[in-house]
Amino acid sequence: MKKLIAVALMAAFASSAAFAGAECAAQPKDKWQKEADFQKQLTAQGYQIKKFKVSGNCYEIYGKNKQGQKVEIYFDPVSGKAVKSEIDD
Question: Where does the secretion signal sit in this chain (predicted)?
Answer without folding.
Answer: 1-20
